[in-house]
Amino acid sequence: MNPTPSRRQARRRDDDAAVTDWALAARTGNQHAAERFIRATRSDVRRYVVHLTGDPQGAEDLTQETFLRALRSLPRFEGRATARTWLLAIARRTVVDRIRHDRARPALISTDSWETVAETAQRRENRPGFEDGVALAGRLVGTVRSRVNRARRALATQLES
């Protein structure tokens, strides 16, 4: 038998009250309370981060970053809102900060992308594409690609040293 909505709401209020109590105790240095606070809210934070980003793989890093920020901010938590609400607000700001950071960095273009761009430009100028040019030069495409890859690795090694 499923609990009625009012029972679920009451249970959620009780859970929120317990989480808030653990957060308030953790801000005074109570390690046990901090562990219970994290265990009780971790899945909620991760689920919220996945919802905001759509990236389940990157959610773990953002969840950890959220808890690092929250633990640093615990001494300022006063319990005016529930700890879960406070924590999810930190998670939202963490996600926004990551998005801003990622947008400020230049995007890396994959190998396929630059090849596609080059071939499209060559077609517009009525020149043969990469693979056509290689075929015209009488070399197998795989041979040329392996040589280019070997040259990239050699260049990367030289740049690192």
* Succession of helices and strands: HHHHHHH
Mean pLDDT: 83
Structural class: mainly alpha
The main sheet comes to: none
Q: Total strand count, please?
A: 0
* CATH domain class of the largest domain: Mainly Alpha
How much of the polypeptide forms β-strand, as a percent range? Answer: under 5%
Helical amount: over 70%
Which radius of gyration do the C-alpha atoms yield?
A: 27 Å
| Separation, N- and C-terminal Cα atoms | 68 Å
CATH architecture of the largest domain: Orthogonal Bundle
* Low-pLDDT ranges: none
Q: Per the principal axes of the C-alpha atoms, what is the gross shape?
A: elongated
- In total, the number of domains comes to 2
Helix tally equals: 7
**Named CATH topology of the largest domain:** Rna Polymerase Sigma Factor, Chain: A
- By CATH, the superfamily of the largest domain comes out as RNA polymerase sigma factor, region 2, helix turn helix motif
Topology:
Elements: H1 5-26, H2 31-53, H3 56-73, H4 83-104, H5 111-124, H6 130-136, H7 141-160
Description:
This is RNA polymerase sigma factor. The chain is mainly alpha-helical and 161 residues long. 78% of the residues lie in helices and 0% in strands. The protein has helices at residues 5-26, 31-53, 56-73, 83-104, 111-124, 130-136, 141-160. α2 (31-53) crosses α3 (56-73) and α3 (56-73) crosses α4 (83-104). The longest helix has 23 residues, at 31-53. The radius of gyration is 27 Å and the shape is elongated. The model has no long low-confidence stretch (mean pLDDT 83).
